[in-house]
Amino acid sequence: xxxxxxxxxxxxxxxxxxxxxxxxxxxxxxxxxxxxxxxxxxxxxxxxxxxxxxxxxxxxxxxxxxxxxxxxxxxxxxxxxxxxxxxxxxxxxxxxxxxxxxxxxxxxxxxxxxxxxxxxxxxxxxxxxxxxxxxxxxxxxxxxxxxxxxxxxxxxxxxxxxxxxxxxxxxxxxxxxxxxxxxxxxxxxxxxxxxxxxxxxxxxxxxxxxxxxxxxxxxxxxxxxxxxxxxxxxxxxxxxxxxxxxxxxxxxxxxxxxxxxxxxxxxxxxxxxxxxxxxxxxxxxxxxxxxxxxxxxxxx
Length: 300
Fold this sequence. Notes:
Blueprint: E1 4-7, H1 13-24, E2 29-34, H2 37-48, E3 55-60, H3 66-79, E4 85-88, H4 93-97, H5 110-138, E5 142-146, H6 158-178, E6 184-189, H7 206-218, H8 222-228, E7 232-234, H9 235-242, H10 258-270
Parallel strand pairs: 1-2, 1-4, 2-3, 4-5, 5-6, 6-7
Helix pairs in contact: 1-7, 3-5, 5-6, 7-9
């Protein structure tokens, strides 16, 4: 039987790639959400014309509208006997912050911070809280948060880092409460990506991120998921464990993605974070918060 999945932020970028891979390569039925109806319908048509056995159900949704989100969940639950996977990929922070690269937090409007927290952190909590009861009832299910290395080190903007760090902690605490009920929650760190929005040199494509999610859904054993639940896992780490590659048949190798980048990220995560380590140096914010960094996001 095909599995039923929800993927948010599926109109473009990583969310679109995740939805596409789940439908085409894994034969899943994917409820794809975003605000842009036309982009979702285009994704659905693309999947329908492929050789895959899955499907994408376009679900236009404004995740800042709690009532609309609740109605969406009720619809899915009325159509599906079980929801196997929720991927929280929607994020509004990049578009909001792009005009302000190079500026400190006190020179940015409050709306930039709010964008990262509203659609990214809060939206993930709202949808997860509405989906969790059906998963708990079935004693089965997986929630995946799409986060970033910004959760453990300064990256781009204060709101970006705060939102990602909180998202990582959201996963950890949700996983603790879900553990007795057989439901898992995992944080996934993609590397620097190449999408309609981002252009990291030699970065991973949305296909690679989608295959990482697919492995968590269909290849990870119960023992694997118990180990991952509540934790941060990087896409390339899963690629090494489960043997998948990017769309070009290789692993990403850019300076913000790939094995070496993942190793460096893991070193940071395995040591006390800056705020807990009195001997740690503060990061040089100009490495990622500078006017040139806006070029990494040409589509934002």
